Amino acid sequence: MYLPAGKGRFVAKKQGENYKLIMTKTVLHLDLDTFYVSVERLIDARLQNRALLVGGTSDRGVVAACSYETRAFGVHSGMSMKMARQLCPEAIIIRGNAGTYTKYSKDVTDIIKADVPLFEKSSIDEFYADLTGMDRFFGCYKYASEMRKRIIRETGLPISFGLSANKVVSKIATNEAKPNNQLKIDSGFEKEFLAPLSVKKIPMVGDKTYQILRNLGVRQIKTIQEMPLEMMQKVLGANGTSIWHKAQGIDNSPIIPYSERKSISTERTFDRDTIDMQRLQAILIAMTENMAYQLRRGDKLTSCIAVKIRYSDFNTYTKQLKIPYTSADHILIPQIQELFKKLYNRRLLVRLIGIRFSHLAGGNYQINLFDDNEEVLHLYSAMDKIRNRYGDRSVLRAASLGAKTIGRMVNPFNGEPPVVLAHRKQ
Ligand SMILES: [Mg+2]
User: Fold this and answer.
1) In whole angstroms, what is the distance from residue 173 CA to residue 193 CA?
2) What CATH number should be reported for the domain whose range is 11-139+151-160?
3) % of the chain residues with pLDDT over 70
4) pLDDT(152) > 60
């Protein structure tokens, strides 16, 4: 069984006659509890202990977050608001606000940034931090506990953490600790900790995979631990291999350091300098559309956008704007256009235009659930599916058709090559 907090240090491994102390990695996973719900309760204390749904408020809206009180009724996030309302009629429904959540997300990020040099922001309410080596000075568990206390004290938001030797075990530990608690799994006790849990607790096991495993009679992680790897491979392919390793508590995935400066960008230099506004607008829209798609493809959100103009006299100007986290074209395009309008004020020929998205965090466009309804979300995922298959210029806004070519990009997050049209020429 996993040890009580604060008792684990190094792992003693027998090597020949001697025992060697192996220092394992220490990975902290932090996750704000029902983040949108907690923020709404912070703003309006009357919402404490009440059943609360946050999301699109129209009948076609989607639940972006729900309080623990509603879960007993079978409500979960991603469900249509209409259904959630039927299941839990007494719930208070609040239309979320991406701007507010972005602000609180940044407050928490700043506290973590001040405390640990290496951390990953895997979504707007979730972080991984590498605490390896801190044992010697403070003890990782103590350090993490104090950081958690500080976040709660300074932001008023409940947060949970899991601490272990790798990302996946820490994340599962956080989920077991919730709500508003913490859990440490000592090195060497990962398998024991995971064994009794449902296979559904493994992060990459979605509804479909869960059904397949259930049909095989697999309920607990323990069963996967005892299965031969080959069997999982046979049933679930490459996913099976990954799930099998996770079930054993093995995970080597690295922490991807967060940096506000990390960005994706694209620019276009004209053969002949231009002042054709319609053409410039079309290119801006096409660039934004393409980059937003790149964000979604990499499961990323941006919260800082910039436009760059180089005039024919080679003077270059950039203007940037901090925005609520998003990866949705229909939100980004008007803001990029607005920035361009403010920036383009010299009435000179333009030599180059470019756009950049920075302050990236992991996350999908569910953040914009409040403004959208299911149709819009389905439209995005349908368009992206077509792009994944037929090329990133296979679906375009009419307004961007004027832009004949924009640079093709490799997936900036994993280096995958650009999706190129296989069936027809552009
Ligand atoms: Mg959370």
Assistant:
1) 9
2) 3.40.1170.60
3) 84
4) yes
- More confidently predicted of 401 and 116: 116
Amino acid identity, residue 211?
Q
Report the predicted TM-score, pTM, of the whole model to 2 decimal places: 0.81
Is 232's pLDDT higher than 70?
A: yes
Give residue 184 CA to ligand 1 midpoint distance, Å. Answer: 18
Calculate how far, in angstroms, residue 293's C-alpha sits from the geometric centre of ligand 1: 24
Structure tokens of 375? 């149709």
Annotated catalytic residues are: 126
Query: pLDDT-derived band of residue 136, with 50, 70 and 90 as boundaries?
Result: low
Q: How far is the CA of 418 from the centre of ligand 1 (A)?
A: 32
CATH number of this structure's domain 263-400, picked from the four choices 3.30.1490.100, 3.40.50.300, 3.10.150.10, 1.25.40.10: 3.30.1490.100
Rounded-to-integer distance, Cα 103 and Cα 116, Å? 20
Ligand 1 centre and the CA of 68: distance in Å? 12
Cα 175 to ligand 1 centre (Å): 9
Nearest CA to 39 out of 390, 301, 422, 367 is that of 367
